[in-house]
Amino acid sequence: MKEIFSKIKIIPISRILLHEGVVADWTQKLSSHIDHDGVVKNPIIVTQYQGRYIALDGMHRVTALKALGCRDIVVYEVDYDDPSIGLFGWDALILDRCPLEEVLQVFARRENLELVRHRDYAEAVKNIQRHRSCFGILTREEEVFELRITEEGHNLDVLIRALKDFEADLDRRSLRLVYIADEQSAKTFRQHENAFSLFKRPFFTKEEVVQRTIEGKILPRKSTRHLFPLRPLRIDIDFILLKEEIDLETKNRLLQARLNWCLENNMVRYYPESVLVLDD
């Protein structure tokens, strides 16, 4: 347990690099919750690279705490090269109806992409995974609209620009999205009668995550879904502590005292099974 506790620490929030974008409404909502509750429940998960910390999980906590004026933040540091850390993606259910084909035709012309309509969803998934296509849409009629890249080279830049622009278009139309784990998305869509279509989104590698972050070219929102062998929850640190102009040594001493108190009072529990959390 001492080894785990040693990886939970307080660092300057200015040293955190986000690897993907955020949803402004989610940041605002989380800021309100933290301000109301007075505690930061969970540490963000980071990996250290070239003296900076890349946030792997917890982008909205970072932006929420910045909005609240916090100087520092609680993190749990991991080795991103650890093969037990899995990297997956998010797809999205589009709940609201829209003139889909018309929207995609206009978008494809604007972004210089090829819009291909077919019925082979498995083939579309392969093309998206290989970054030959930016994304795809699966309809209730099992038709697939695939946005293929026509330019030679720079596929990743083209893909990321298209993904950001398309999600911005969806936002402007006030279309509701529900993000779903990529390996479950097609099954969930077929079972969810109220969803209009499935937005099949691209997948990124760990190398792409790190490189884009260091270059300052962050990925679109909800681009990655990390699975960690261990995820500390409910640290419950007073967020005022993170705002105060107290030296980091003192803050970390208080943090470790809190963790050890939890251990000594039988408040540390380990769940090796999958856990379903119904919360924001």
Task: Describe the protein.
It contains ten helices and 15 strands. With 280 residues, the chain is an alpha+beta fold. It has two domains: 2-86 and 225-264, Conserved hypothetical protein from pyrococcus furiosus pfu- 392566-001, ParB domain (Alpha-Beta Complex); 90-203, Conserved hypothetical protein from pyrococcus furiosus pfu- 392566-001, domain 2 (2-Layer Sandwich), CATH 3.30.1760. The strands form four sheets. A six-stranded antiparallel sheet has the order 9-11-10-13-8-12, with helices on both faces. Strands 1-6-4-5-2 form a five-stranded mixed sheet, sandwiched between helices. It is elongated, with a radius of gyration of 21 Å. The model has no long low-confidence stretch (mean pLDDT 94).
Notable traits:
elongated; Conserved hypothetical protein from pyrococcus furiosus pfu- 392566-001, ParB domain; 280 residues; Conserved hypothetical protein from pyrococcus furiosus pfu- 392566-001, domain 2; 5-stranded mixed beta sheet; 2 domains; 6-stranded antiparallel beta sheet; alpha+beta; single chain
Using only C-alpha atoms, the radius of gyration works out to 21 Å
The dominant shape is elongated
Return the structural class. alpha+beta
Helix content: 25-40%
Q: Proportion of β residues?
A: 15-25%
Order of helices and strands: HEEHEEEHEEEHEHEEHEHEHEEHH
Q: Widest sheet: strand order?
A: 9-11-10-13-8-12
**Total beta strands:** 15
CATH superfamily of the largest domain: Conserved hypothetical protein from pyrococcus furiosus pfu- 392566-001, ParB domain
